[in-house]
Every structure is written in C-alpha cells, then in structure tokens.
Design goal:
Elements lengths: L17 E11 L2 E13 L6 E10 L5 E15 L3 E7 L4 E10 L2 E11 L6 E11 L2 E10 L2 E14 L1
Antiparallel strand pairs: 1-2, 1-10, 2-3, 3-4, 4-5, 5-6, 6-7, 7-8, 8-9, 9-10
This protein binds protoporphyrin IX containing FE.
The site of protoporphyrin IX containing FE has 21 residues, from β1, β2, β4, β6 and β9.
InterPro entries: Calycin, Nb(III)_bact/plant, Nitrobindin, THAP4-like_heme-bd
Pfam families: THAP4_heme-bd
Protein name: Peroxynitrite isomerase
C-alpha cells in the first residue's frame, strides 16, 4: 500500500508528526523528583487523527535507562476552529479526554473527562502544554491527584528523530 497523504484537517497539529526523543524531570508533592527519558511517536494513516504513543524510563545520574516508568497512548483529533480533542489510555487504570486549543505551534489541553478503574490512584484532572521551540517539542504537565490541586508533575524537551 502507498504511503497515505496527511489529511488536510491535520494541518494545525501536523508539526507533531514523527518520532521524538529526549529527557525531562518529574516530581509531585508526594514523591522525590527524578529524571526520565522519553520517546513519543505521532503517526497517521491518512485519516483526520494522529496516533500517539509515549514511553518513559527512569534515568540514573549518568543518563542511563534504569527501568520503564509511565506509558500512555491514544488519538489526537483536530476539530474546526483550531480546537483539538485528545483521548488517552494509561496502564494505571486511568482514561482521559482532553479538550484544547492550537495557537500557532502551541497546544494547551485540559481534561474534560477522567475515568478510573476501582484500583486506580485518585486522579481528577490534568493540564498539558505542548510547544515547538527551536524545532524541539517541549511539554509540561500538571495534575490534580491524591488530594492535591493541579500541581506540576512532568516536563520534558524532545528532539525530532530523523
Ligand atoms: C511522562 C509521564 C509520567 C511519568 C514519567 C510519571 C512518573 C511517575 C512516578 C515515577 C511516580 C511515583 C511513583 C509511582 O507512584 O509510580 C508517579 C506518580 C503518580 N503519577 Fe505519574 N508519571 C507520568 C505521567 C502521569 C500521568 C499522565 C498521570 C495521570 C493520568 C499520572 C499520575 C500519577 C499519580 C496519580 C501518581 C501517584 C502520586 C502519589 O500517589 O503520590 N502520571 N508518576
């Protein structure tokens, strides 16, 4: 099968397409802060959504991968008026629906719906910022969880992998 063309509706978020790799810092009031490595892949199949997978690893002081941390996957669905809907699933028993806005190379997302399995940790809301800065993908994430209001949990800077 031929490589499909990028659907025109994807234009506002097409800058995300491809594989990204880099590192970031995580923390929360309830945990020690840590360094992590991350790979994100945004793909498409010609339809008007992006596929999304993120994988992360704990990094030691030398920058070596110690063990897997969070992974998440889902779909990014651009809507008219530079709006975007994002659905994400987590292996921790959480699913989230984000609604957001694309402003040039910046995307701001807020959770509209969060659902948890009975065994999942108490998590109630997320706020994410993604931006293209000097060709790198920067993102930052605040979450409301385990009794805390929206508070920084992660930020990272990723480079495009050729
Ligand atoms: C780059 C992405 C992320 C990384 C590397 C990461 C990593 C971590 C680590 C290492 C911990 C502490 C140990 C643990 O409880 O497993 C933690 C706690 C937690 N994370 Fe994340 N996380 C990420 C994204 C998320 C997302 C997207 C959510 C929600 C959907 C989330 C929700 C939580 C919760 C609820 C806790 C428990 C806090 C507590 O009980 O004190 N994390 N995360």
């Amino acid at each position: 099968m031929e490589e499909p063309e990028v659907h025109p509706d994807l234009e506002p978020i097409a800058f995300l397409l491809g594989r990204w790799e880099g590192a970031g810092v995580g923390g929360y009031p309830t945990i020690e802060s840590f360094n992590f490595g991350q790979e994100i892949e945004f793909g498409h199949n010609g339809k008007p959504f992006l596929t999304y997978v993120s994988r992360t690893w704990l990094l030691d002081d030398a920058g070596n991968r110690v063990r897997p941390l969070a992974t998440e996957s889902g779909y990014w669905r651009p809507q008219p008026g530079r709006q975007v809907e994002v659905v994400l699933a987590h292996p921790t028993g959480i699913v989230e629906i984000y609604i957001g806005e694309v402003v040039f190379n910046k995307i701001e997302l807020r959770t509209d719906v969060v659902a948890r399995t009975e065994s999942a940790k108490e998590y109630t809301a997320g706020h994410r910022l993604y931006g293209l800065v000097n060709g790198n993908l920067m993102w930052a994430y605040e979450m409301a969880a385990v009794g805390h209001p929206l508070t920084d949990h992660m930020s990272a800077e990723l480079k495009k992998v050729a």
